[in-house]
Structures are given as C-alpha cells and as structure tokens.
Amino acid sequence: MEVKIENIVSSITLDQPLNIEELSEKLVMDLNEFMKMMNITREELAKVWEKEYKSPDELPEQLQVIKNPGTFPGVICKIPNPKTAMLIFRTGKIICSGARSKNDVDLATEKLIELLKLGEVFIKEKPIIEVQNIVASAQIDFKVNLEMAALDCEGTEYEPEQFPGLILRLEDPKTVMLIFRSGKMIITGAKTTGDAKLAAEGTYKAIKESGAIIKETKEEIRKEKEEKEAAKKAKEAAKKAKEEAKKKTGE
Fold it and tell me: Could you tell me the domains of the chain?
C-alpha cells in the first residue's frame, strides 16, 4: 500500500524579532532576479501561481515577494520552488506549509533566508526547524463498512450526518485517521513519514481483522467503473468547453 505525503507543516524559529511591515515594503524584486534565485522559468512560475496570474505574460516585472494580507498578524512569502507558503510573524516564528518532504522544508527555509538578506535582515543563528504535522493519504484495496468498523475498532467516531468518514484515533503512533467507504484514508498528526506509514498499515490491519469489508458483485464493480469513466469524460468536456470559451473571449 502506497502512502503519499500531501503536506508537511513545520515551525521555523529564527530566534530574533522581525519588522514584518518594513519587510513587505522593502522586498520588491525584479522578476528575472527572483526567477534566477528560485531556479524557475517564467512559465513554471506562472503555473505555480496560477490563481494569481492566468499566464506568464501577466507576471509583473517588479514582484512584491512578501505580502501583508491584513487578515492575520503576520505576512506571507510564497516560495515557488519547492512550492511552499511561509507565514512570518514579528516574533521570528515562521510556519511553513505545502512541503512534500523534509528536504523541501530545508530548501524553502534557505531560500527565505536569502530573501530576508535582500530586505537587510540578517539571521544570526541557525534556524530551528520542527515538523509539527504530516498529512498523508493512502488507498485500501477494498471498500470499508464504516458502521461495522466503528463497532469493532477501538478509538473510533462515526457520525455520518456530520461527516461522511470514520475517525480513528491511534495511540501508537499518535495519529488521527480519516477513513472513507471508498477505502481512501487520510493520515494526520504524524511527525515523521515513517509514523504515517505505520499508521496506515496498522489501520489497514485493524479494518481487515474486524471484517469490515464490503464485498461487491462483478456487476456492481462494472457499473461503478462505467460511472467513473462517464464522470471523467464529462469533466474533460467541461474543461475543454471552458478553454474554448476563454479563447473566443480573448479574440
């Protein structure tokens, strides 16, 4: 069973206060200089930031690297490669999210420190990096009878009126599992990738031993496959129609 890391949330401590208002004003960079520092092309950058810029041509020549959204007491710096978001607070505490590996966190931290230097902020001590939460996903090779699993497995919560999945709290490793009828699992709360894998394997074993397996007939499997294929085709057709409409609008 493959366990896919979806997000690693880490805290970074710089051990010195930051003037975040001044940083957001000072850190305006030439686009080419920023792309060179991040080792990324214009096309790749536009793709990473597609919510803000629809095409490479829309990227501004002068880029505000650190932004103040005004919705919380901090500023945001988006590192495009590796794709991560840094929430920076005036205490010198930083929250990094979006990383897929510990190496991503380390690399994003190095790039942030380089950016801070351009804003005339020089970090005196080596940053302390701690992984706070790993979110991962896995797929079981059978469908799960959530009602039966809730009765037979310890540490479960199942209220389908409020949430469609079964919540399973594990003590070792200390994690929270979200289990769905389709067999999909979401692992949260792990501190290492090894713990995420152990949690997934332990949950798989517990469900199998409880007998909470939905056995489908060949006809049901065939019908579900056809429905998935039809939904996929409909999604692709809608996407194509949207792109064509966008082209016509551009003309």
Answer: 8-133 (3.30.310.10), 140-210 (3.30.310.10)
Q: What is the pLDDT of residues 42-82, one digit of tens each?
A: 998 888 888 888 888 888 999 888 888 777 789 999 999 99
User: Could you give the CA distance from residue 152 to residue 129 in angstroms, rounded to a whole number?
Assistant: 39
Q: How far is CA 86 from CA 73, 119, 237, in A?
A: 13, 16, 36
pTM for the full predicted model: 0.81
The answer to whether 95 touches 11, Cβ cutoff 8 Å, is yes
Positive/negative CA dihedral, 143, 149, 155, 157: positive
d(CA 168, CA 146): 11
Cα–Cα distance, 189 to 122 (Å, whole number) = 33
Query: Can you tell me whether residue 240 is helix, strand or coil?
Result: helix
Amino acid code (one letter) for 231: A
- For the chain, the straight-line distance linking the first and the last C-alpha, in angstroms and rounded, comes to 49
Residues 192, 194, 157, 144, Cα dihedral to 10°: 140
Q: Are strands 62-64 and 166-171 parallel, antiparallel or unpaired?
A: unpaired
Residue 250 — very low, low, confident or very high, per pLDDT cuts 50/70/90?
Answer: low
DSSP E strand boundaries for the chain: 3-13, 28-30, 62-64, 66-67, 75-80, 83-88, 93-99, 128-139, 143-144, 156-157, 166-171, 174-179, 184-190, 213-214
Amino acid at 21: E
